[in-house]
Amino acid sequence: MTNATIRIDTVLPKISAVKTLDPNGSYSVDRVIDIQVIFSENVTINVPDGKKLRMKLNVNGKETRYAEYAPGKEGEAPNKAMFLYTVAEGDNVAELAWTGWDVSDKVEITDSAVGAGDKGNKFEFTDNDAKDYKWSNKLVIDTVPAKIERIESSFINDDLSLGGCCETVDG
Predict the structure, then answer these.
(1) Which pLDDT value is given to residue 70?
(2) How far from chain centre, in Å, is Cα 118?
(3) What gap in Å lies between CA 18 and CA 110, rounded to an integer?
(4) Range of 42-46, 92-96, 111-115 with top mean pLDDT
(5) Tens digits of residue pLDDT in 5-58
(6) φ, ψ for residue 114, nearest 5 deg
(7) Dihedral sign, Cα of residue 146, residue 147, residue 149, residue 153
(8) From the CB of residue 111, how many other CB atoms can be counted at a distance below 10 Å?
(9) Which H helix or E strand runs over 128?
(10) Rounded to whole angstroms, how far apart are CA atoms 96 and 20?
C-alpha cells in the first residue's frame, strides 16, 4: 500500500495584473497595442470556434473599443493571456481604461492544475474585474499628429537669398 498525497485546489483563478507592453506615446491609426492579463495561477483558456473573448476599452470617452484575445501571441504564458487593441481614428485618451468583458457563452478560463471544464475552479467573468482593478502601467493614446505652429527666422534682415554669404557650386 502506498501513501498518496491528494491536492485539492479550491482557489479560483483571479487577475493579478493588467498591463500594456507598449510605452506611453502617440500611436497612429491601425497600430496594434499589446495588452497582457496576468492571472494568479496557471490557467487554460478555451474559446470555441466562432466565439469571442474580448476586453472592453474606453479610449475616447464616447465609444467602446475592444481588445481581442490573441492565443499564441508572444508574451502569452501559462498564467498570462494576450489581447490586441487596434488604434482607430479618434482614439485619444489620457489613460486607456478597461471597462469590462465581452464574452460569448461557452468561453472558459479554468485553473490548469484542475483541468478544463472543472466547474469549481472556473474564472468568473464580471465587469467588476475592470472596475475593481487598476492597470499596472498607464498608456496614453493620441492619434492627433503634431503640427508645426510657427517657424521663426534667425536672419536679421529676413533675406533668404544666397547674397554674398554663400557660394554656389555647379555640378
Answers:
(1) 93
(2) 29
(3) 18
(4) 42-46
(5) 766 666 778 888 888 888 877 788 899 999 999 988 888 888 988 899 999 988
(6) -90, -40
(7) positive
(8) 23
(9) helix 128-131
(10) 10
Pairing of strands 43-46, 32-39: unpaired
C-alpha cell read off for 89: 481614428
Instruction: Output b/e per residue, 114-153; b: 16+ Cβ within 10 A.
Output: beeeeeebbbeeeeebbeeeebeeebebbbeeeeeeeeee
Amino acid 105 reads: D
pLDDT of residue 116: 46
Q: Which residues pair with 54 in a beta bridge?
A: 68, 102
Structure confidence by residue, pLDDT tens digits, 57-82: 887 777 788 999 999 888 788 889 99
pTM value is 0.73
Using DSSP's 3-state secondary structure scheme, residue 131 falls into: helix
pLDDT at residue 117, rounded to an integer = 46
pLDDT at 118 over 60: no
Question: Order of strands across the sheet with 64-69?
Answer: 15-20, 32-39, 80-86, 64-69, 53-58, 97-103
Which residues are within 8 A (CB) of 55 and not within 5 positions of it... i.e. 6 or more apart? 35, 37, 66, 67, 83, 85, 98, 100, 101, 102, 130
The full 3-state SS of 54-79, as one line of letters, equals: EEEEECCCCCEEEEEECCCCCCCECC
C-alpha cell at position 26: 502617440
